[in-house]
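Structure tokens please, single chain.
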Amino acid sequence: MRDPWDGSLNNTILLVKGLDKPVSGEDLSELFSQYGKVTESWVREGRDEETGEFYRVGFVELEDWEQASHAYHALRRKRWRGMRLKVSYAQPHL
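Here you go.
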């Protein structure tokens, strides 16, 4: 699994927030593959160091920018499995 904050991201990787229920990288891959070829997907869970709140975010890498853009526009506010997804382009953590 790639570290999503390693500074090598480009705009083919989408960040998925709003994952209030357990999901796997495979679940995200299945959802996003409707919009392009998924090359990698994973979920990261943890606790915010400042607030102590639990978080779960997903990352989905698509083969090229056009596919990532298509998935972004189709899923950015979609309701899926009872969750309201918040999809954006992943950015390096500065």
